[in-house]
Amino acid sequence: MLDVVTEALGRALPVAAFLLAISAVAELSDRAGVFDVAGHAMARLGRHRMWLLWLSFSALAVACTVFLSLDTTAVLLTSVGLTIARQVGAAPRAFALTTLWVANTGSLLLPVSNLTNLLALPRLEQMGVDHGGYVRLAAAPAIVAVVLTLALVALLHRRELSARYVLDPPAATHDRVLLRVAATTCLVIGPAFALGAAPWLVAGLAALVLAGVTAVRAPGTVRTLRLPWAMTVGFSLLMVAVTGAHRAGLLDPLVDLAGRGTGAGDLLQVAGVSALTANAVNNLPGYLALEPAAQAEPARLLAVLVGANAGPLVTPWASLATLLWLDRCRAAGVTWRPWRLAAGGLLCVVVVVPATTLALALTT
Predict the structure, then answer these.
(1) Which of 7, 95, 218, 355 is the most buried (most CB within 10 A)?
(2) Distances in Å between the alpha carbon of 20 and those of 36, 137, 270, 319?
């Protein structure tokens, strides 16, 4: 039992450290006004055309997901999108759906984009694929996933997005020094992640710098900082549980269901089983359960990630990002019918997961 705990926590601790640090960076940046100012800038650049405003917001959602993780998009950018939509008199659902779908389907490109990616990186390194190799392997599938997702949102909400808006949102007052430091921090950590620096170290240093400046400029902000401690502990316990289940052979039937091989059909099978598992339980235990199905093949492990990242859009519990997003929507007074949200998510999954998997098959 001790070796199971040691193995699980050895994998969990760097990921948990990153989760806490990047959450601090995102929360402090939001309080400094980074996302608020970005939203106002997008509204001005949109020139009263809803399409331009939505495209600008979508680009921000993709960048936020790639460099600051999908949970940041689900929590912070959802609030920004709904606020901007309300201020300019736009229908909020297109902006809300963009953050939900992009948060999941757009989280393939970098290891820091999703906790599942961070868990997969050490396995890929054992297969001879380093950080740069991961980015090259995931690039084409990630682009396909984002493009198809945004195309679906645009198609489903084409009527609302063809409108024009009259009012620009009012500019808010922020501490200029703190705002510049926070914005610079967000801009610097992106390339650092992309270049392959240890994610927990980059995020930790960024959090320390930002917390230090915030403590001087706005001391009360640091004292009221909310970090996902419960999620971190739950994640670590989940690692121990799934590691123990694998050791006991309890998950072997699920791994067998994912098949073998690296052909297009084989990768579709892996991604499909991964997506179904994510929607049945949750994408994090779904990934952990199916990780052995990679069988030392990088393409198969990426296929597991495709299903675990882009697939959990049908059930609300399939992804933590979805639960966080629903909470933000409720807080803003935007409600969704469960069947309609599930139907839209199923459409996105049916279109995006196979196409993304085929892009993976064609480029490996």
Answers:
(1) 95
(2) 22, 27, 31, 18
Instruction: Summarize pLDDT for 46-91 with one digit per residue, the tens.
Output: 778 889 999 989 998 999 899 888 888 887 788 888 878 887 888 8
Question: Using CB atoms within 10 A of its CB, is residue 24 exposed (0-12), middle (13-18) or buried (19+)?
Answer: buried
Q: Which of the pair, 341 or 23, is modelled with greater confidence? A: 341
User: Is 297 in a helix, a strand, or coil?
Assistant: coil
Phi and psi (nearest 5°) for 286? Answer: -60, -45
Determine the Cα–Cα distance for residues 182 and 214; give it in Å rounded to an integer.
9
Instruction: Report the alpha-carbon distance of residue 323 to residue 315 in Å, rounded.
Output: 10
Q: State how far the Cα of 114 lies from the Cα of 345, in Å rounded to an integer.
A: 19
User: What helix, strand, coil percent values describe the chain, rounded to 5?
Assistant: 80, 0, 20
DSSP 8-state assignment for residue 48: T
Pick from 361, 156, 355, 337: nearest CA to 275: 355
